[in-house]
């Protein structure tokens, strides 16, 4: 029986499906799903961070880490900006960093850290360590960039001891809806220039909804002139008991 054009026969459909299935995957899925590589950002970020340290971030990092004790896991350690601020009560730090250029710089920074720091490759979504083995987990300016925040927080819960503590210093979606709208607008392009960082994550709320009880949260604007990433939270949380 002849078919009216353009309706192809079932055989043509079958052949087309086979061809589509055999096409190479799109460029993004050529990469290892866990790979984090932002070469340009990795070169620029340490310079920006040096400026930010002098403008007040160093003080925030000290506040973040003050009183931490025992074994610490730092997730997304970058080039190691937190390392100089660990107090002597910390016995060791496992610093996990997936981006190769930043990890190499973190390894250099670890050599002059005041406490023993081991730098490891790995992502927040699959921390390269055993469960229930850390007293403190630290995230600073990281949960804005990880691909899967709930999985990252579940991983943090897994590696923390029952009475362990999460210390966080993160920029967040503003609680002011007008400012949040400005952030949403900026977030269209921002991640392309900032290593995949997003401006509109309500990280403070997500932590509280992910099996943690927030025990301290200080909200601040940094830097003070309102750039889209100014709204920050500096806080502490414990695993919520049964
Ligand atoms: C803005 S930098 C912050 C670095 C450092 N924590 C600091 O306070 O300066 C964001 C960091 O998150 C890291 N990162 C991105 N995706 C990640 C992931 N899935 N798991 C762990 N770290 C990640 C980046 O490689 C980068 O080091």
UniProtKB/TrEMBL annotation:
Keywords associated with the record: Methyltransferase, Transferase
Methyltransferase type domain location: 74-167
GO molecular function, one term: S-adenosylmethionine-dependent methyltransferase activity
Keyword Methyltransferase included in the entry's annotation: yes
Keyword Transferase in annotation: yes
Biological processes per GO annotation: methylation
Protein name (record): Class I SAM-dependent methyltransferase
């Amino acid at each position: 029986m002849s078919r009216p054009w353009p309706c192809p026969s079932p055989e043509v459909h079958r052949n087309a499906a086979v061809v589509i299935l055999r096409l190479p995957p799109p460029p993004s899925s050529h990469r290892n799903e866990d790979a984090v590589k932002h070469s340009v950002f990795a070169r620029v970020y340490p310079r920006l961070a040096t400026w930010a340290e002098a403008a007040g971030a160093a003080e925030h990092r000290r506040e973040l880490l003050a009183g931490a004790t025992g074994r610490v896991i730092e997730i997304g350690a970058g080039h190691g900006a937190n390392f100089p601020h660990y107090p002597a009560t910390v016995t060791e730090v496992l610093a996990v960093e997936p981006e190769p250029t930043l990890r190499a710089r973190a390894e250099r920074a670890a050599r002059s850290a005041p406490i023993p720091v081991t730098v490891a490759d790995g992502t927040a979504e699959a921390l390269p360590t055993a469960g229930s083995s850390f007293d403190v987990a630290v995230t600073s300016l990281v949960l804005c960039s990880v691909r899967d925040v709930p999985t990252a927080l579940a991983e943090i819960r897994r590696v923390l001891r029952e009475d362990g503590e999460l210390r966080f210093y993160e920029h967040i979606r503003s609680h002011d809806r007008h400012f949040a709208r400005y952030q949403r607008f900026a977030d269209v392009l921002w991640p392309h220039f900032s290593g995949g960082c997003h401006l509109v994550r309500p990280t403070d709320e997500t932590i509280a909804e992910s099996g943690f009880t927030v025990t301290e949260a200080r909200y601040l604007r940094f830097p003070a002139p309102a750039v889209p990433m100014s709204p920050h939270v500096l806080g502490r949380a414990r695993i919520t008991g049964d």
